[in-house]
Each structure stands twice: as structure tokens, then as C-alpha cells.
Amino acid sequence: MTTTVHEPQFVLIDFEFDKERRRARVASGGLFATVSEPLRVPATGGEQRVQLREPDGFEFKEAEVANAVLIWSGGKVTMKHTNTNGLLCRVDYTPEGVNEWSR
Question: How far is CA 62 from the centre of its chain?
Fold first, then answer.
């Protein structure tokens, strides 16, 4: 819930998504940016693959766990987070719930 509502902004969004490689990037000028990369094995620095499955989940059925290297927004709503939890998943929300193809 919020007590402040800002006017909508119609902006171009640059979007890259590769669930299998655990890499994603979304950005829009000076408004926001997020970058996700694979988790790393601390001892070797190699990529680590971790999957989360929720067969009866209402948010998603399957996600790749990633490192959210950067989550940033400017403008009227500001935030900055680095190296935090990220989940990458394909989702199609419908009135009946999450579609089967998003598994």
C-alpha cells in the first residue's frame, strides 16, 4: 500500500533476458536499471546453477536463482541494491493463474 501515487511515464525500455544462462538486463534511461548474472561458487568463481521449483506456485512454477548485481532507480522513486537475490522466470498471468508454458 502507498499514500503517494505518481503520474505514469511512457518510456522506451531496453530488455535482454536469457533464463538458461541466468542473465538479464532491463533499463530505461535515467529511470531504472537492473542487471542479473549467475551465482558464483566462492571457492572457484565458476558459475553455479540453482533452480527453484514450485509446482503449485501462484507466482511462478520454475525460476533460475541469480545474483541481482544491480537494482537501481532514480527520479521520484529511488533505490539502489547490489549483489542481492534475484529470480529469473517466464510468467504468463491469467485469470486462471500461471499458464503451463511458464514452467
Answer: 13
Helix ranges restricted to H, 1-103? none
Q: Can you tell me the distance from the alpha carbon of 14 to that of 36, in angstroms, rounded to the nearest whole number?
A: 14
CB 79 within 8 A of CB 71: yes
25-37 tens-digit pLDDT: 999 988 999 999 9
Q: Which residue has the cell 525460476?
A: 63
Domain boundaries in the chain? Answer: 14-102
> 15-54 burial by CB neighbour count: b if 16+ within 10 A, else e?
eeeeeeebbbbebeeeebbbbbbbbeeeeeeeeeeeeeee
What pLDDT, on a 0 to 100 scale, did the predictor assign at position 37?
Answer: 97
Cell for 34?
Answer: 537492473
Per residue in 15-27, pLDDT tens? Answer: 999 999 999 999 9
* Residue from 92, 64, 52 nearest 101 by CA: 92
- The strand pairing partners of 39, in sequence order, are 48
3-state secondary structure of 22: coil
